[in-house]
Design goal:
The complex is a heterodimer of chains A (221) and B (200). Chain A is an all-alpha fold and 221 residues long. Chain A contains 9 helices and no strands. In chain B, a hairpin with a 2-residue loop joins strand 1 and strand 2. Chain B starts with a strand and ends with a strand. The chains are: A mainly alpha (221), B alpha/beta (200).
């Protein structure tokens, strides 16, 4: 399993891996917002956490279609499925998800504080948003894995995955943003939405890979 | 150990490709599956490996023990695709499969030497020629031990010398008590192999 994790990390940082594409997309979205919204600094700092979360969500979805498709195209997926007696397929999927998260989504979380400055956010808000992103984005990857597994056989499945997965990520977005606001706006609570966010991640860490494994097993044609 | 297929049938997209396939292979036996294009050779191999559900009948292994309880766990599957990443070096690819598949066999260096690719292990897999890629993929059969080899057109793209070297590898595998099921329309150089002709 460690071998699989390391292989996928290596692939994501080598040429054509696409680890940076997500970050660049994230940067592009955030940099565009102030031009669209206008130079109202108060407004920007108020919508900052929500914009960061939405942009991170979209950037997460960007690379998901390659999660299994690359393995399917070169035949690796057959062997991953073939070895499912030794490594339970759901665990293989979980490992691939963690590697994908560490390789493609973690850079977004690291870039988020910097981009928070673009949105005129205060330090506490930036910290809270980055922290909720750290806890919440794995959930997006886990749901996305199920979508990616369903669409693995489709040649242009990328958009389909986004459309399939986006509605399911709404709860993650809601609790992620409300926890980020809770840290800065006084009457709103931070801990409750944050704990639900953490619970969502843990819950989806189980359900997502199981669903993806089921879809992959029936999708190997 | 025995590999047994009972009344096996396969389908692709709801259409029956073959049916009523029966064979039993003991330790050291090989089965060469021949037939015209579209006869269902590849489908048969995928059904045996468990990558496609059989339309009827079943495949099983007997006497695999705790190590190899099912056909999938006892099998190497060498398909049309090489299952190697072009961005990683040959050594990294083989090292990954060796660690992931378990039951470690030859070391990466030894297996590359066996297929005649010694000295090329540091190159990215994408730099290799078609025949070299196939040989690297064959080296994948050697880095972890599996008693059953399921080979789909294994010699596609190989030159004469590599074909002979691969025939030697297959004979060696059978001598050590392995089982081979190979789909091909080129002679593989396996003497005494059973044959199964499909599509008649």
């Amino acid at each position: 399993m460690l071998a699989l994790f390391l292989r996928d990390i290596r692939l994501s940082v080598r040429a054509g891996g696409g680890a940076l594409i997500g970050v660049i997309f994230f940067l592009a979205v955030i940099a565009t917002i102030p031009f669209g919204v206008g130079p109202d600094l108060n407004l920007l700092s108020r919508i900052g956490p929500a914009i960061l979360w939405i942009a991170a969500l979209l950037a997460c979805l960007l690379g998901l279609d390659r999660l299994f498709q690359a393995d399917r195209e070169d035949g690796s997926l057959d062997l991953l499925v073939l070895n499912s007696d030794r490594h339970m397929l759901a665990l293989t999927v979980l490992t691939k998800c963690l590697a994908h998260w560490a390789g493609s989504v973690l850079p977004l979380v690291i870039a988020a504080p910097l981009l928070g400055l673009f949105m005129n956010m205060e330090p506490l808000g930036i910290g809270a948003t980055a922290f909720t992103l750290l806890v919440g984005t794995p959930a997006i990857t886990f749901i996305g894995a199920a979508g990616a597994a369903v669409a693995v056989a489709l040649p242009r499945g990328g958009l389909l995955i986004s459309v399939l997965v986006l509605p399911l990520t709404i709860p993650v977005l809601i609790f992620g943003v409300s926890a980020s606001y809770g840290a800065v706006a006084d009457p709103a609570p931070f801990l409750q939405p944050f704990l639900i966010l953490a619970a969502l991640t843990l819950f989806l860490a189980v359900v997502g890979p199981l669903a993806a494994a089921l879809a992959l097993r029936h999708g190997t044609d | 150990m025995r590999l047994i297929a009972e009344n096996l049938g396969g389908e692709r997209g709801g259409e029956t490709v073959f049916s009523g396939i029966e064979f039993a292979l003991d330790r050291g036996e090989a089965l060469v599956v021949t037939g015209p294009n579209g006869a269902g050779k590849s489908t048969l191999l995928r059904v045996i490996a468990g990558l496609l559900p059989p339309a009827e009948g079943k495949v099983k292994v007997e006497g695999g023990g705790d190590e190899f309880p099912s056909v999938a766990s006892a099998s190497h599957y060498l398909g049309h695709l090489n299952a190697m990443k072009t961005a990683l070096s040959v050594e990294e690819n083989l090292g990954f499969w060796r660690a992931f598949q378990g039951e470690a066999g030859l070391s990466v260096g030894q297996s590359l030497e066996t297929v005649g690719l010694d000295g090329l292990g540091h190159l990215p897999f994408g730099y290799l020629s078609t025949g070299q890629r196939r040989r690297a993929s064959i080296a994948k059969l050697l880095v972890s031990r599996r008693p059953v080899w399921l080979l789909d057109e294994p010699t596609a793209g190989l030159d004469k010398a590599s074909e002979e070297r691969f025939a030697g590898l297959m004979r060696g595998h059978c001598r050590e008590g392995g089982i081979i099921v190979a789909a091909t329309h080129l002679p593989l150089g396996l003497e005494g192999a059973k044959t199964l002709r499909m599509g008649d």
